[in-house]
Amino acid sequence: MRAHNLKSLKMIKDNSVVTIHYELKNSEGEVLDSSKGQEPLVYLQGAGNIIVGLEEELTGKKVGDEINAVIPPEKGYGMPVDALIQTVPRTAFGEGIDQVTVGMRFQAETEQGPVPVVVTAMEDDTVTVDGNHPLSGQELHFKVSVSEVRDASAEEVEHGHVHGPGGHDH
What we know:
Blueprint: H1 3-9, E1 16-25, E2 31-34, E3 41-44, H2 52-58, E4 66-71, E5 85-89, E6 105-110, E7 113-122, E8 126-130, E9 140-151, H3 154-159
Antiparallel strand pairs: 1-2, 1-3, 1-9, 4-9, 5-8, 6-7, 7-8
């Protein structure tokens, strides 16, 4: 067998660098995200770079494989956590309150560090913010095609992400 044939037989396993094209839809069929017309997604299998449910579905696949996977919230972005929804006084926004609108996203400073939040409601005296992932509680519908699989370098495994083209340079 030639080397390029062996490469195409490499199966996805932990510490594989995987290149995929994908389309993500919600249960209503709306496209939420897609690599169509963009660079493919390159990730390190087993390092938590993508949601666990999709990693599980891709394990054992190889170049040329295509999958349609339905990922439940528990293996996607989890269920919404009530503690991440808070109503705060408008005064917490200081003079910038005039620029705040429902749907606005920003980083809230917490004791655990910055948390991305979205403004979900505004009343006369209060603003409600939600720190849950926007896709929490949703069933995710993925269509994925595998375009490349290779073994990760020792440095990539140590750092927990891909280096070089499609990955992280540092």
